[in-house]
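Hi support team,

I submitted a single chain yesterday and got back a structure, but I'm not sure I'm reading the token output correctly. Could someone confirm the output below corresponds to the sequence I sent? I've pasted both exactly as they appear in my results page.

Thanks,
R.
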Amino acid sequence: MEPEAFSILDLGLIDYAAALEYQKAVFSDVKSRTRNSTLIICRHNPVITLGRQASRKNILAGEEELRKKKVPVFEIERGGDITYHGPGQLMAYPIFNLGHFKKDIHFFLRGLEEVVIDLLWDYSVAAARRPGLTGVWIGNRKISSIGIAIRNWVTFHGFSINISNDDLPNYRLIRPCGMDIEMVSLEAVLGKKVEIDSLKAGLVQKFSNLFIG
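Hi R., thanks for writing in. Yes, this is the structure output for that exact sequence:
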């Protein structure tokens, strides 16, 4: 089957709960084939999400601290453990019908990593995979977390890329991905401010290069 073109839905800065409802609606449309595969791009207000393999023991902050910081916690159906999202990240949620691309979960996950690696290379940043781990790393520091779900070969959830330094302190609220690791941002690597909107066109192009050719 020939790959289909995908649509772009840019939600801007949006609460996680609202973005999740958008995902579910788009997922339903893609599954019923009333909408093409769709790439949702957005940023979130501060939030902690727990995937299917997550343990609440990896939340290091107490409930009072989370209330003061206005950081809600969501348990969701994606794979992976715990992560944090904030407005300094670029989020990508590909709601793709893999029947139009390739019915291979490994291919899809490695493809998402490749999208991030290629995007960062545009900024002369050499990011890479780490054997046995999902996500994208710069040395021993993680810059992109990935967690997906697939039903009937339609994907949802996706990945985050840390762009701004502003969100890095909030990773202290959790054990990222359930591990004792350090998170890093593109700004920290480059040593200068980066406008998140400036990455969006490049991100869409990387998806197109990989999935459309």
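A quick pointer for reading it: The two ends are 14 Å apart (CA to CA). Let us know if anything else looks off.

Best,
Support desk
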